[in-house]
User: Fold this.
Amino acid sequence: MHVIRGLHNLTASHRGCVATIGNFDGVHRGHQAILQQCREHAARLGVPLTVVVFEPQPREFFAGDQAPPRLTRLREKVRLLRDHGAEQVLCLPFNDALRSLTAREFIDQVLIEGLGVKHLVVGDDFRFGCDRKGDFSLLEAVGRTHGFGVEHTRTFKVDDERVSSTRVRTLLASGNFDVAARLLGRPYSLHGRVVRDQQLGRTIGVPTANLPLLPQPLTLRGVFAVVAELASGERYPAVANVGFRPTVGAKRPTLEVHLLAFTGDLYGQRLTVYPCARLRGEVKFDDFEALKTQIHHDQARARRYFAAVETGIALSLPLASAPLGRETASSDFTSADDAADTNDG
Assistant:
C-alpha cells in the first residue's frame, strides 16, 4: 500500500491505475461494493487500484464544526481501504488551491497528468470544480478523448435503503450498534493511545485509560458499556465516557475507559474500544461527589449488561457477520436526494 500525500509527491510509478474518488468515511459496505467494482476493472486491466481522498473532507473545510462527525480517522480509513483492496491512496489537501481548480483543471492535473487513469468509477451525481462544470457527463467526454473509461458506482442497499455514512452516523447516535455493525461490515470502534491525564479516577478507586480525541464533532457522546481490546488482542468488559467531561472542565474531547476486570499499567499502549450499549448521556454534576456516585451506578449497569450476554466478552460485540434483511448491490443511478452523501467519507 502506497499513501501519496499531495499531487507533488506523485511519480511515474504511480501512473496507470483504476481510480475512484470520495471521502470514504467509515469504509462501510457501500464503499466496499465500490472497491470491489474497482478491483474487477483493475484485475482486467492489470493495473493498481487507487483511491483519491481529501483531507480535510470538503464539508469540514466549508462547514467547520457544523460538518458531520467522522466515522474514521484518516489512519484507520487508509488501513480499511488497504484491507479492501486499495493499492494506492492519493490524499489531496483540500485547501484554497484545490478548491480554486476548474473542473477541467482538476481532470487534467489529478486524473490525466497525475494518475494516468485507465478507468474511473464515481457516483453519477459527482460534482467538482470551482466553475461547477464538473460532472459525470464531462468525465465521460474527456475519457473518450483521452482513452479512459468512466463508470458510475454500484449502490449497496439493505432492506431497500441505501447504505451511507449518514445512515451509519444516525444509527450510532441512537445507540443501535448492532445494525450499524451490519452496515459497516464490522463492529464500530474507537482507537487511540493511552496518555496521562488528571488521574482523578484513581482517587475514587476507578482508574481510567484516557485517549485524546481529535477536536472535531463527535460521532458518539455519553457513557457506554464497551469492550476494550489491548494491543495483545486481550479483551475486557469496560465502561467508557466519550465527550468533554463537563464536571471537571475538560477543554478537548476525551475517550475515558475504565476496564472492569483489569489491573496493570496501560500508559502508552494502543487501545481499541467497541461500544456495545449506551448507558446515558453526558451530564455536568454539581460536585465531584455526585459524579463519583454516578460513576459507580454506571459501573453497575455495565456489569449487568455484560452479565446478561450469554456468549461471553469475545462474542458480545455488535455482530456484523449475519446479513440484515434484504441486501442488494446494483448499478442503478443514485437519486438526487442522495447526492450530498455520495462521496461522504
Observations:
- The first helix runs from residue 29 to 45.
- The radius of gyration is 22 Å.
- Residues 320-325, 330-345 have pLDDT under 50 and may be disordered.
